Amino acid sequence: MHDMKLIRQDPAAFDAGMARRSLEPVADSLVALDEKRRALMTEAQEAQARRNAASKDIGKAMGQGDKDKAEELKAEVGTLKARLVELEEEEGVLSAALDSELASLPNTVYDDVPDGGDEDDNEEMRDWGNVPTSKFKPKEHFDLGEALGMMDFERASKMSGARFVVLKAGLARLERALGQFMLDLHTGEHGMTEILTPALVREHSLYGTGQLPKFREDLFKTDGDHWLIPTAEVTLTNLYKDEILAEEELPMRFVAHSQCFRAEAGSAGRDTRGMIRQHQFEKVEMVSITTPEQSDEELERMTLCAETVLQKLKLPYRVVKLCTGDIGFTAKRTYDIEVWLPGQGRFREISSCSVCGDFQARRTKMRSRPKGEKQTTFVHTLNGSGLAVGRTLVAVLENYQQEDGSITVPEVLKPYMGGLEVISA
Questions:
Q1: What is the pLDDT of residues 37-95, one digit of tens each?
Q2: Residue 8 confidence (pLDDT) above 70
Q3: Which of 63, 237, 321, 408 is the most exposed place for a label (fewest CB within 10 A)?
Q4: N- to C-terminal Cα distance for the chain?
Q5: Where in the sequence numbering do the catalytic residues fall?
Q6: What's the domain range around 212?
Q7: Is 405 exposed, middle or buried (0-12, 13-18, 19+ CB in 10 A)?
Q8: Number of domains in the chain
Q9: At 333, which helix (H) or strand (E)?
Q10: What CATH number does the domain containing 11 carry?
Q11: Residue 69 has what pLDDT?
Q12: Which of 262, 284, 315 is nearest to 387 (CA)?
């Protein structure tokens, strides 16, 4: 959510920020709508003040025996009362319209975010590890998993339709091992607090993190008032909704392993085979709540935490800074981590780490206060995958595959695998 005060102060700067998002100028219409709303509020305040004064004057007129004056004042009070009701309704309509307009606009990006139209214009920042060469033609993860008899899309489809999978035996345990390994790493070495959150939330939570109203078609909704979370970012970011935090408690760092549910409404024809793009998947999510001064440094730290997972798994990857045409709705700056998939012969996203500034904090009304001060300020929020568990499983399968189709278990996962060192048919 944007600060209307800042838009009023510098509408040209706001339009310039939206232009980087390829949006038409909108500040003038927002300011005009806000001025109408503010004019109604001023009129309501003046009408209320006059109503209060007239009410007092009625008593004086009655005390002086001036019944005509009293009746005149009573009529005025009645008229003012009716007008106040009208003003309240009109102001409510305008406020809702303004909030709706503001809620539909994406965050402004930082100056260092590269301009561009799509992922081809992202800026590579660094890479790690060497892309492996193989004496045999690497297979994609779904061919490996099906040949092992441990990845079943057909039976999942019978139960649930397309974009679901059933994992069995060694691969089911490997996915569980990955999630546990990530949680242990982030809590034990990276100082994050593990949180177990609901998978069902009410609409206001999704509004707070920016999934609603714009991305409604990408979400799953129950017949009641609940929605399935697309990521634990939703629940972790809403932990302190409507609260004022002590500044000395910041930064707060949380991590959660959750099921995630996405309709993938805009992905028709993309990654139709395999586990890359599913309706239900597991993810280990990181969320930080910081002061405005801490957030830039925290993004670098969070990204390194995600990178460490891949380094310990010995999976080659690169880090790219997303351009204006590829960055998410709520982000001011985003780093994508892309892991090498030998079966596909290319890098694929496995984590996005974003700083959102105060964009989500304004929507969730989450603030902080320095010790001993009355003034509060909106916090900054950050989120990142640490990592997407299913996609990490894909990367392990493709990078650790052997010529006979078996999968060598990465060294750091062996303690979680009950002694299993090779997954074979």
A1: 999 999 999 999 999 998 888 888 888 888 888 888 889 989 999 999 999 999 999 99
A2: yes
A3: 63
A4: 52
A5: 262, 277, 349, 352, 391
A6: 119-423
A7: middle
A8: 2
A9: strand 333-341
A10: 1.10.287.40
A11: 86
A12: 284
